[in-house]
Amino acid sequence: MRSMTLPELSKKLQQIDFCMMTTCGGKTLSTRPMSNNGEVEYDGDSWFFSYEDTRKIDDLKGNPGLSLTFTAPPSLLGKPGIFIAVDGNAQLIRDRQEFEARWTEGLDRWFPQKFNTPGLVLIKAHALNIQYWDGDEHDVIAV
């Protein structure tokens, strides 16, 4: 069985609008939906905008480990969709130039002042381990 490559996985991720991000605050796991930017070619790093004053940011300050899960629906012919699990570490970025470079149309739905929104922070989620299942195959992709 041939393993999927990171560029092949990137094409699959571009078709998924949202993922679930899990963080750990102390002994408690917390999961929430996050918008996946399908316009960006995935290279092992995912980028998410957030407000600074949130539980996920507090969690990541104490423990940078996180998990991202992505799911695509079944195909029209009934083949199961792909399931992707990413384990990684987060870096919190507060640089306006990075905000501008990563900004995409539609984010103003959540951040009305765009990259000038007070309390804005960018989460860079760097993958350490990627697993996928697509109904026909499953494997781990080295990053």
UniProtKB/TrEMBL annotation:
The General stress protein FMN-binding split barrel domain, residue ranges: 8-141
Source organism superkingdom: Bacteria
InterPro entries reported in the protein's UniProt record: Split_barrel_FMN-bd, Stress-Dev_Protein, YdaG_split_barrel_FMN-bd
Protein name as annotated: Pyridoxamine 5'-phosphate oxidase
Organism (species): Rhizobium grahamii
